[in-house]
Amino acid sequence: MKKSAKLGAILLLLCTLAVMLVLALSPAGGSDPTGASYVATSGAETLSDVATTANKGYYGANYTWVMITGFMVFFFQCGFAMVETGFCRGKNAAHTMTMNFMVFLIGAIGYFLVGFAIQFGGSGGAAGLGTGGGALDAMLSIPDFGGIMGYKGFILSGTGIYDPGIYALFFFQMVFMDTTITIPTGAIAERVKYSAVIITSLFIAMFLYPLFGNWVWGGGWLSTLGKNFGLGHGVVDFAGSSVVHAMGGMLALAGAIVIGPRIGKFKKDGTARPFPGHDIPMAIIGTIILFFCWFSFNAGSTLNASDFRLAIVATNTMIAGAIGGVVAMFYMWVKYGKPDPSMTANGALAGLVAITSPCAFVNAPSAFFIGAVGGLLVCIFVPFVENKLKLDDPVGAISVHCVNGIWGTIALGLFADGSYGDGLNGVTGAVRGLFFGDASQLAAQLIAVVVLFVWGCGVSFIFFKALDKIWGLRVSPEIELNGLDIPEMGIGAYPDVQLVKSPELDYDSEDNMEIKELFRFKQNTRSL
After folding, report:
1. How far apart are CA 394 and CA 385, in angstroms?
2. C-alpha angle 237-106-242 in degrees, rounded to nearest 5
3. What is the rounded average pLDDT of the residues 49-76?
4. Which of the residues 97, 388, 402, 409 has an alpha carbon 20 to 30 A from that of 377?
5. Apex CA 405: angle with CA 403 and CA 411, to 5°?
6. CATH number for the domain that contains residue 411
7. Structural domain tally of the chain?
8. 228 lies in which domain range?
9. Residue 53 lies in a domain
């Protein structure tokens, strides 16, 4: 019986091979494997037909480019979620991971309802996505100063808004906005209320981010500093060192100040205790995902598939991110004796943040220098923020995004080489930085930094203070020490694993520095 089955299988195989051989040697039978017939002309085409086909090809490529890069930027959420969760403790893993997903859900709705109209309602849209963007023509302005906010396109509605170019612009810009919302979650992780993050996400998506975004990317007053006041090309930010990352970093800074440190982070003498992340491999994988998606983040910001500058943008992004990671790795290796994996990851992210603004305006050696400085800055500022400012930032969001977002903004004003950007923001000629003959461009970039501190950090600080007073920003000490997963989320990340408690980090000892942000809970306990 077995021999018969084997023989039958061999015969079936031989017959199959024989049939395939016959088909392989048969004529094509009228098919066109070259695809040449797709572009063959009949001779009856008019000039209008040719123009229509060319336009379809041009705009089709642009839409494909913008949408696919937007899809990949959305995947940033996975990278951020893994980095933050890996750097936090296991008892808070479900809370941290879900928080990173939730901010996208809330942020997308807030931006859809209000944020997009404020940011781009008076921008005129993106030229490479068709003429329909011209419907975004409502800008509230101050005479002789510039635009303050757009006011058309709320809920993606209004005359002319139901347009593929506007919808594509909304999609692409929404995932950028969501990056800003995600950044501060890392700085306030392991002690923040889930509900407070929901409220914060709405505030950022509907108000804080769109207004600054309008001033730089939506035709607002910072972008017209060149046209109106002769300061270079106005504030220039190709892909978001200032608009996305520095703004998110300012939120992280304000949030960390208001919420206070985790219990046990600082001793009474002021020295900091290290809080080891529970899953460093998860954080490294998250960093690799972010690095990969950053190519789309930056190169996709051309909003045009026929802008060959996208190749320079992507290459500069790779160089800056790589050298940022290398510098951070060797800095830690030389200073502390080991190539710290977490700081290597943050060094790469710092280089990527720094190059995001100038990536289209500089050459490769400049990108190398900018990324290297970024990797060095993050290694200097992580201990500075912790030991000098006494701020508890579990993932280094302030040092990566705030510090290097500022550095990237300034770097453009230094290294822009005059090979790109002719006509940008209504100014004739390419963008040049200080080292290439235009000190006024650096002045414009420095104004953006000042506005970031005043608007990004100042307004955020007021918001967090008000939120803490009215709603409460921080969980109770009992919840914090036991872990946020069960009390806040109703489920643990690792139900089959017995998590080990640290006698120093998971208990409130007499040696801990007193945290003034917890006084409210102690007073409530006394009143009970």
Report:
1. 11
2. 15
3. 96
4. 97
5. 100
6. 1.10.3430.10
7. 1
8. 61-478
9. no
pTM of the model: 0.94
Q: Under a CB-based contact definition with an 8 Å cutoff, are residues 315 and 359 in contact?
A: no
| 297, 360 contact by CB (below 8 A) | no
Structure tokens at 319: 């160089």
Give the residue among 406, 369, 115, 137 at the shortest CA–CA distance from 248.
406
What is the DSSP track for 225-271?
HHHHH-SBTBS--SS-IIIIIIHHHHHHHHHHHHH-PPTTSBBTTSP
Residue 503 placed within a domain: no
Of the candidate ranges 187-191, 349-353, 515-519, the one whose mean pLDDT is the lowest: 515-519
* DSSP string across 282-304: HHHHHHHHHHHHHHHHHHGGG--
Q: What's the average model confidence in pLDDT over 151-177?
A: 98
Residue 18 inside a domain? The answer is: no
Q: Kindly state whether residue 170 falls inside one of the protein's structural domains.
A: yes
Give the separation between CA 225 and CA 447, rounded to whole angstroms: 10
- In angstroms, the Cα distances linking 175 to 105, 268, 269, 443 are 11, 42, 43, 30
Helix (H) or strand (E) holding 140, with range, is strand 139-142
Q: Tell me: pLDDT of 30 over 80.
A: no
Straight-line distance from the first to the last Cα atom of the chain, in angstroms, rounded to the nearest whole number: 84
Pairwise CA distance, residues 265 & 478, whole Å: 16
For 134, the 3-state DSSP assignment is helix
